[in-house]
Structures
1.
Amino acid sequence: MLTNQFVDALSSKRKGARLRALKKLAKIRGEKEYCDDTLLSIHTDYSFSPYSPSLACFMADKFGLRLAGIMDNYTLSGADEFIKASKILGVTYSTGVQIRAKFDFLGGAFYNVSVMGIASRFFKDVEKRLSIFQQNQYSNVLKTTEEINARFEKYGVKINFKKDVLSQVKKSKSKVYLSKYAYFSLSKNLKEKFSKEKVVEILKELGLNLTNEEIKLLTVENNVYYEYDLASILFLQKSKFSAKKNYENAASAVALSKDVGAICSFEYEILEKLEDNDENKKELSSLIENLKKLGFDGFSFDPSKMDEGLRNAVFDKLNELEMLPFLLSSIEFPRQDFKFRFPDERSENLMKQSSYVVVGSEMSQNQTAEGYVLSSLNVNFEDKVRLFAKIGRGE
């Protein structure tokens, strides 16, 4: 049983203490039965998440994941600990970073990019090169804070950038400024100032689309995750806070990925379920083709948010262009589920296979000076995928 004592130990400020606590837990746990679930995008407290790398890995193991991947924003600071924690627990691991970038062919819109399967021998180099993606984050968070204040001014709510937001960054181990800290500061401010019912009323007045489940979370008594739940809702509807921001071009993220033999995937966020119709198929087909031209290796999405015919069309298009499908599911807030329920067998098989391809690619890069990447083997794409997935599974 995971007691508060162990949670505190796995959340210690000292990495050594966290790993020692994990070793004790591993002995107590004994033999473990695993399912074949995988999750590549687990954030740690190096990028806002409430989980230390050791605690994040323990949670992945607790839910029976065979493969867990760390994916912090703009940093690999937690990767070394996550790898050590994975080895203690016997969990297969992968290492990546999430970068937000600008896409010119999408009218300058911003989307997240996953750079996955980064070999440990490249960590120092990648961490240095990530500085170019971090350089505008301070001003971006400041702009988000100013936009939040403009929207909530009529309710007497104002966030102090230095006192409220920067103190959150300093309190965490993060070296990166993220807008999530601004939304969390807003959440704390709203909780202190208004009743739960009033908060819901204000959010509706501001045009946020709250589901019945979200309203329930924000009004239920004794919700220990209230501040995180509210911050999560605000963050997921960040389009309502239209602050102008600056991000590096997506081509820079692709170049970084290619230079270290990693796998680069575009994160396609879907707010409402997409219907299977010609318009959506044409739009997604064009998007994937343009991503291929940019050099992307994969396309990350939530298959449960597409009708079956549409997601099958996406899988077929990706295979045609020799790109990999990845599950878009991440852990950033405490209530998010480490286990994903796939809508069908094809989605599950293909996306899990892609996860192991990432591991196989990362292992290849670590084991040899040259390493192998998907583009370097002189065999057909399907054979490459099977080979790397087999390596990733340890077969």
2.
Amino acid sequence: MTRAGLAAVCALVLLALSDGRAAAAEGFAIVSNEKSGNFSVYDLEGNLLRTVPACGRPRGMVFTKDKKEFLVCCAEDNMIGVFDTMTQKLVRRITNVLYPEVHYLHPNGRHLYVSNEEDSQATVFDLETGRMIAAYDTGAEPEGIVVTEDGKLAFVASEAANLLHVIDIEKQEVVKDILMNTRPRRLALTPDGKELWVSAEIAGMVDIVDIATLELVHTIDFEYRGLRKENITPVDVLIDSKGQRAYVALGRANHVAVVDVKTRRVTDYVLVGRRPWGLALDKNETRLWVTNGLSDDVTIVDTRTLKPLKSVPAGEVPHSVLIWEP
């Protein structure tokens, strides 16, 4: 190669690195690809920046409290992988976590609540020591898990048992099992802490539980012309920071439903990719990121117009998405 050619190549490399640093400074999205075992990293416009090795079957992801690291359920490795947020490199492992699916960080920033899908348990790990500090028996196939903002209660959905388990954290025991509609999957608390929304996949609806009474108080159904009822299989539920609007990924219906939280009425349906699974909002809540598990892509939706802006390729079976912004 001539000196001029080498200089041109170096310039292109420096330009790419510069663009990558700029994108990182502005923010980026990380998608866990369950089957291909890697992360797809995008700038906030949806341009792919890089693909990074992850772990065996990466699924649910959460940031640590300071967002310097993020925690990944590595199901086939039976561990929680701790990754550096800026580089997406594995920095340490929390081991002996049996088949983790999703997890939730306690408001204290130290205790991680994990659903262990094949072990019929919810477990709690201390992030500082890496040790398990509690374990709770659940019904078969636990998945969705959340902790209330006051840190007093944890909820775990058992898919196969159709139960929502209520854990009293101070007592360290399951204090109630609430019968839900068929196959409860994911959970979302309203910002005021008064309601818990639970997707019921096979029933094709969302159940609402009153936190004060721990009773199922309302059910939201989904009906849309052209969508067969059996294809409406909701998974992820996301409620905006003001508690005004909820988004529900409708699975095999290939749409995201938009729900008015106050009235509990469905106001719109947005066509995305095949089998939308995971949801995330950017900081300004003007962009909704949707992982589509059967079309191996991610759809970015403008929340002001409720129109999809673009769909971008991901790895195989994209599961969850995290968005980092300064």
3.
Amino acid sequence: MKFQNLQGSIVAMVTPFHEDGSVNFEALTDLLEWQIAEGTDGILTLGTTGEYPTMSHEEDASVVARTIEVVNGRVPVIVGSGSNSTATQKEMSIRYQDMGADALLLISPYYNKANPEGMYRHFAETADAVHIPCLLYNVPGRTGCSIPVSVVEKLSRHPNIAGIKEASGDMSYAMKIAHCVGPDFALYSGNDDITLPLMSIGGSGVISVFANVCPRVCHEIVADYLGGNRARALATHLRYLRLMNDLFMEVNPIPVKSAMNMMGLKAGPMRLPLCEMSEAHQDALRETLREAGVL
């Protein structure tokens, strides 16, 4: 399955763990099969929601291998290969490409950050090293820095850089990106609550946390909007907006894994430093799930 101008709902997969903290590959297989059966248009593994910062490179590779094996070309598989070390990002990108990834998600350098030229080289040198599409990942709330619009514009002309996951929540920034890039550069919402506003400026869909609990709904929202039924897309989006927001009442992926466990989806625990939600938040989330009709 090739990644080319992909439109729709791409789920940012959780990584299910056993109670001892090891990866639950049986649950991962079941979740992937469920996502595809529910109409998800693409799979992202090893994103923020997948807790990759707490996993070893060996575990990362095992999760990628199982994901590619189970999906078996039915939808594109995007792998998060980002690092704040450009050398590590290049190494992981080549490794996942060779394993069969359809595309890569590259993050801006966190903690050490970079000036604009260093930011440009961080992405461009990685994209130079592979031959599959790369997506930029702008999430300043996690990284402490935003990719400058001028850098995105320059990178958008790179033949292997296909788009951006925009997760700043800043519509002004997103509009500047939409204004300066060409029609072949995809813009994906990284925030479920503003998927429709972002698609209104030319976005291709969403890389979604919400899709872990409501994959069919998330797919239909994007499909309706892109298919011209914008009134139904808006009505559905507003119906589930509280749930989308409550999945971020604590740091992601704590709420979404908690929700999945409440739904019997066997996401398992988080790895430290992430831990279980407060009882008050669990009660509130459970009530929201009931109101949304998924519990």
4.
Amino acid sequence: MELTVALISFISGALLTRLVLWYAHKAEIFDVPNQRSSHDQPTPRGGGLSIVITVLAMVGWLWYENMISQELARTLLVGGGLLAVVGWQDDIHKSRANWRLLIHFFVAAWALFWLGGVEQFVFGGVVISLGWVGSIFAAVGIAWMINLYNFMDGIDGLAASEGGFVAGVGGIMLILVGAPGLASISFSLSAACLGFLVWNWSPAKIFMGDVSSGFIGFVFAVLMIEGERRGVLSLWVWVTLLALFIGDSTYTLIRRVILKEQWYAAHRSHAYQQQAAVKGHKRVVTMMQLMNFLWLLPFVLLEYLFPVWVPEILVVTAVVAWFIWRRSSSV
């Protein structure tokens, strides 16, 4: 079943991206380079619409087949669909940041309403109860996941390859813990990202765009919460898998706040952007994927085999991520 889901999603992602590429040229939907850009020529954008359509269609089918709950389906179909609509609008006509942020928190509240909120989580084998405060933290976390994935979509192939890796490994972990419905969603996202990557690998023929960058972050956040709520897969597994994205976006934001810069304004001061300016897009993406497989994947396996080690693994991961970010930001 999961292999079929992945195969269909990959084909759908690749073919629909080609269709969006044709439409973007016809409708003249281009990302025109400016001083903040990491590319030097107008490039079609909005190609991630293929990922959104593929994943949401698969969610609808899984719901129809009773493989996922009605609550989870409503969370993703409505919340993810709304994010995609707002993102597509932003790809065509740039919208105000405060308006987008309002939508992000609305979507976070929508997800928590249908998923039942977050009142506790397991950390190193210890159950930590937070009550209603947990849902507030979760709402901020969902909004941050939406935005950080958008921030990290700045060079050819990065966001798509990360989505392919994280969702692919997450799907395998969900199979191991006996959650085939969640695994199918994760595999669909992974394969759709890889199908899109066929057209987005450097030099990119089309960019992902806001239509799906925030959508991918939202799906990851929902998988985190649902896996933790059902006790099948710790949210810390996802946090570890996404460490490079979380580290670069979070440390860069903190630095911008400390330096009293307009942290909400577009920029190109992320570590991956600075590295890409020197080493090129393809080399940076390849290096990050090597770190995913050689560093973060083994850490995730340790978390799975030894849950009580989670606090120590997270501390080491955060320190290593900071060191990588610090060295990469000083080029």
